[in-house]
Design a protein that fits this description.
Length: 78
């Protein structure tokens, strides 16, 4: 089964955001940096190679990624 955009966003959120230490998770600058790395990964490995994955600006990517995993992020931050 082919991956959807939502699958990829969830994967990237898990890889780059949910696995940071508690200390880093409380640092908004660090989370922003992690989100930026996830965006670069998305561009390099998904949207540049497969037209099924739309090109997203950083803002669009961050909004979609945060909305896709907002429940997970809330649980981790508690």
């Amino acid at each position: 089964m082919a991956k959807t955009v939502e699958d990829v966003l969830h994967e990237l959120s898990s890889r780059f955001l949910l696995n940071v230490s508690d200390e880093e998770f409380r640092d908004t600058i660090r989370i922003g940096f992690q989100m930026e790395q996830a965006h670069w990964w998305y561009i390099d490995y998904y949207s540049s190679h497969d037209k099924a994955f739309p090109e997203l600006s950083f803002g669009e990517f961050a909004e979609k990624n945060i909305l896709a995993d907002s429940v997970c992020l809330c649980c981790v931050s508690s």
